[in-house]
Amino acid sequence: MAKALSVLFVALLLVGCSAPEDPKQAAHVQELIKQLHADTENARWEAADELMRMGYRAKAAIPALIENLGDGHQHQLVTVAAINALLRIGPAASLPPLMEALKSDDPQIVSGALATLAGFGAAARPAVPAITKLLDNPKTRGDAASTLKMIRDFP
Q1: pTM score
Q2: Which residues have a Cβ under 8 Å from the Cβ of 11 and sit 6 or more positions away?
């Protein structure tokens, strides 16, 4: 019986129970979130890149990363880094805020959210109704259609 309980406990840990968040790491994520609002593109890119390397542990930065999808710089380095960070954080945490971002008045944020959702492939299926609504808008139609194809075609 004790062995069965031990196996069940280990299985629960593997399925999704996680250790408490490290306070130093949480503070570092907060510093990076502040850096995402810096005046220089390089500082914002470095923050998004660092958050990308942290993956799911950087989930607190999702709203700031979504704001940076609308980073209107010519080379779009920050936008690409923000998309990569959201992809590494994963759909479990990123999907609901990205679906909300599809309602933004900023076409760059919508475009970045669509690119991120496309990168999630089939994991973004819950967003299909929201993406489908964007087919009615000539400004978002192409990106929305491409995203729907990626969601449909890639597991």
Answers
A1: 0.82
A2: none
